[in-house]
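Weekly structure sync, notes
Attendees: PL (lead), two postdocs, one rotation student
Agenda item 3: pending single-chain targets
PL asked that the sequence for the first pending target be pasted directly into the notes so everyone works from the same version. It is reproduced below exactly as submitted, 189 residues in total.
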Amino acid sequence: MELYERIIEIVDANLIYCLIPIILILMLVNLIFKNRFETKKALNLIRWTIIAYTLITFIVYLIGMVTAENPNEYAFINRATGPYAWAYWLMFLGALILPLTLFIEKLASKFWYVLLVAFGMKSGMYLERFVIIITSFHRDYGTESWNTGLMESASYGIGIFFLQGLVIVMLTLGIFEIMKRKKTGYNKV
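Predicted structure, written out during the meeting:
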């Protein structure tokens, strides 16, 4: 693993994944303590960190695209034009375009807008995972690479969720029924 990839991993784990709670806490501190702490400076530091992170990851992405042996087979072309292109372009918007709007000083000085950008980046990360996994399944036609265990475990998980929902509904209805009987029982006495 190269150094820049390791740096991006460290920033991901320690800052980008925690971006939403960080901004919410800054908003809360700003609301409670007004101008006692330097929340605007902290917000500005987060803003420039987001911009730098976005530019570095985009440059790494472009380097990967340019240095690919066969650019026609690179994931950009396959995923940007396939049946899940809508998710790819939403990912691109949330992870690249929206953070670059932090160059606009008037927007970047607002806590709510930086929070919106953080939500957009997080959505972009999840859409990236969605695009990678779904397009891999969609374009894989060979039976030898099918993972039926994954599908079985997914259906098992869905079944457990439905079973859990059924139990919760039965318990809730049972509690309401007991409360109704006790209420009518006390009224008769």
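Discussion points:
- The longest helix spans residues 148-188.
- The chain has eight helices and no strands.
Action: rotation student to compare against the earlier draft before next sync.
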